User: Which sequence fits this backbone?
């Protein structure tokens, strides 16, 4: 008789691995869709015809934590944004911030860069094509406000990866009282 516990562990492992693969694929798909939307508006004769693009990434916020998904914390500004904007409803992120940021910035799986946990070391090669670099290449002005957490030295900061402006913390482990430098 087969060992039920071994079969159960295999199923959990297989499910976990497929879940991780879906997460990486979803981040890549998100960036590809964003770039396609961008490309469709990029060649407008007048820059005022281009859409404004705002990505909001919140650390340690679960899907059901916001009021518009039935959460019990009041989130009136997010609720308003959700009603008037595009909400991506089928995507995944890493369980921690640096890999998620790597996926969003590059459109590639974070493990490709060796980023599998929060990191204050240099996460990306200097010549990496990033979403802000792609946006800049077609005339957008780019800005990051908040936590970078892909390298905590100034020479590894967001201004070296395509952001024209940045204000926030280069490292992780910050609180609302020490976020900005």
Assistant:
């Amino acid at each position: 008789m087969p060992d039920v516990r071994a079969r159960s562990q295999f199923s959990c492992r297989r499910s976990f691995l497929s879940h991780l693969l879906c997460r990486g694929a979803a981040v890549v798909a998100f960036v590809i869709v964003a770039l396609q939307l961008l490309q469709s508006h990029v060649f407008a004769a007048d820059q005022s015809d281009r859409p404004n693009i705002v990505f909001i990434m919140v650390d340690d916020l679960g899907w059901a934590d916001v009021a518009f998904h039935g959460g019990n914390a009041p989130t009136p500004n997010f609720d308003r944004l959700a009603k008037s904007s595009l909400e991506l409803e089928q995507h995944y992120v890493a369980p921690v911030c640096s890999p998620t940021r790597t996926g969003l910035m590059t459109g590639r799986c974070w493990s490709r860069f060796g980023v599998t946990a929060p990191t204050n070391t240099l996460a990306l090669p200097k010549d990496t094509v990033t979403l802000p670099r792609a946006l800049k290449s077609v005339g957008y002005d780019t800005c990051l406000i908040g936590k970078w957490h892909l390298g905590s030295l100034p020479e590894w900061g967001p201004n070296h990866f395509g952001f024209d402006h940045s204000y926030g913390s280069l490292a992780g482990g910050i609180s609302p009282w020490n976020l900005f430098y």
Residues 4-51+93-169 form one domain. The longest strand covers residues 143-147. The helical segments are 4-42, 76-84, 97-106, 131-137. The chain has four helices and two strands.
